[in-house]
Amino acid sequence: xxxxxxxxxxxxxxxxxxxxxxxxxxxxxxxxxxxxxxxxxxxxxxxxxxxxxxxxxxxxxxxxxxxxxxxxxxxxxxxxxxxxxxxxxxxxxxxxxxxxxxxxxxxxxxxxxxxxxxxxxxxxxxxxxxxxxxxxxxxxxxxxxxxxxxxxxxxxxxxxxxxxxxxxxxxxxxxxxxxxxxxxxxxxxxxxxxxxxxxxxxxxxxxxxxxxxxxxxxxxxxxxxxxxxxxxxxxxxxxxxxxxxxxxxxxxxxxxxxxxxxxxxxxxxxxxxxxxxxxxxxxxxxxxxxxxxxxxxxxxxxxxxxxxxxxxxxxxxxxxxxxxxxxxxxxxxxxxxxxxxxxxxxxxxxxxxxxxxxxxxx
Length: 362
Description:
single chain; alpha/beta; 14 helices; globular
């Protein structure tokens, strides 16, 4: 009897396992997405952010959730990736939202705007002060869900063939700079040019443009700008800490199991951290090489900075008067910025300034 009872119980256990197995399988489905990047593979750090995220998502789901990354142009051109996600041509993209200010200038604020936030404050605003929630409400209009997935840190202010000594020298300059920053520069007399990254070098070389901004020392060195423009200006006051986003198709994101959604959020957050860490390692080495090759570093003159700030505030007033989404986002960001830098100057700035003054003492 005991043997028969044991076998019966064992049989019941096997049957229960057989019934439970499909439910377990259903809770961890195999899902494959395609991600279209706005960046070429040659820009390994910024393009690599999507690869870092994809690898982490796969590991967190035991390989069940796979995201295949495609470089700009492999599926769609780099500046059309958001449309591809909106229309569900691909499930996801990796891009900078200020590329899409032609759709709505509010997109710029989600990434970076002139005299906005540095990278630390940008992350604080997005993750802990309602920024992600604010923008994902806005992104619903485009059928996408946004996840911070990288940051370059403060960028450089561009390469120029001639030295800029005052704001008067900006008048008439043809400069590769787009979006909101280009609109600000236009108020200083600059003639903004929309040029893809791969076309900047020949435009500088031929004198078609007088100056160009891209990212920072590591990426700019890769594109060879130092060979055709001598003066390298800082800071890029329009990009104090730009967020690179991973955008998922909203319906596809909502269809994911909750643990897969969490894996996607965790992977993006990890990539957000890793990208800036990489730039903070690579940029110091690159700027040393650039200077060794004859690059002349220059700060923007004070009157250029002052005029740029004045023009920025004028532009915000103009856009806010006709765009409620922009007005809400820019005012929220500015309020957070003012409080953030109030604290920053107490400890962070004082500490950093001391370190900079005494960095050679060892």
